[in-house]
Design a protein that fits this description.
159 residues; 2 domains; single chain; mainly alpha; 7 helices; three-stranded antiparallel sheet
């Protein structure tokens, strides 16, 4: 169990979220530190130019994400889907197998040299991103998982 005083840092001193898988922590050379004992107070509670202090949060580094590009790619497909199907239609549930198949079709079209989907006129990679995000969303909710392992188990149970 990790306490607020415990954190993980990589070899450069960047924080690594405590809920990262052990394999990822090992890959980045993470070491566990006691934030109270091993870090100077100034580093743990940096002073803003206004004079205010704020504890560094031990979470994901969203500032590492190219937010504009990711958000625009996702939003372009979400907007097209809302127009084509209905607002929030996808949230009714799409099986992982369908999302995966769509993602793979768009990825292969892109890898074959086609930049834009002929139907939507939008980037194939934006479609890949949207499908991946939808899969992550449904996985986080524990629903719509019809991957092959699930189908295989059902067929073995029925035999």
């Amino acid at each position: 169990m990790t306490h607020d005083s415990e954190a993980y840092v990589d070899s450069r001193g960047n924080y690594i979220p405590t809920n990262f898988p052990a394999e990822a922590k090992a890959m980045y050379g993470a070491k566990r530190i006691n934030r109270i004992k091993e870090e100077p107070q100034v580093k743990d509670h940096p002073v803003h130019s206004s004079g205010a202090r704020r504890e560094k949060l031990n979470g994901y580094r969203y500032d590492y994400m190219p937010a504009r590009e990711v958000n625009e790619a996702y939003a372009s497909i979400a907007t097209m889907g809302a127009i084509k199907y209905d607002t929030d239609n996808w949230m009714k549930g799409l099986p992982i197998s369908q999302l995966s198949a769509s993602m793979q079709r768009h990825l292969w079209a892109y890898m074959s040299g086609e930049d834009k989907d002929p139907e939507s006129g939008l980037s194939h990679l934006s479609h890949v991103l949207w499908n991946a995000v939808a899969m992550v969303y449904f996985e986080s909710k524990g629903v719509m998982d019809d991957r092959f392992k699930e189908r295989l188990q059902k067929s073995q149970d029925n035999s």
